[in-house]
Fold this sequence. Notes:
By secondary structure, the protein is an all-alpha fold. It has 4 helices and no strands. Helix 1 (about 20-50) runs antiparallel to helix 2.
Amino acid sequence: xxxxxxxxxxxxxxxxxxxxxxxxxxxxxxxxxxxxxxxxxxxxxxxxxxxxxxxxxxxxxxxxxxxxxxxxxxxxxxxxxxxxxxxxxxxxxxxxxxxxxxxxxxxxxxxxxxxxxxxxxxxxxxxxxxxxxxx
Length: 135
């Protein structure tokens, strides 16, 4: 089933939560984000292949190695984020997107808009972070 969203559509609290239009909105948002990450990752890979670590100057070589390390860490973060995006898309397909994994309540549309891969409502996320601080 394909849904065409009205131009400038934004999910609203006045609608039924995670109705087909909201699901399609978040699916498109996630797909666009994933495409951007893949494009950026491919660009990083291309840059790394073009650069050479065979710098004659030790300081230049150290800088190049530091830059390369940073790019690899960034790529790893992108890989993890793409995995979260894939999980979020799967939850849309399964009808569980926007439902808190901890309490089963609805995750606010504002939170989903800000962090579409989130799996916890703000209350449960706050509680999780406070528990992590205590440990």
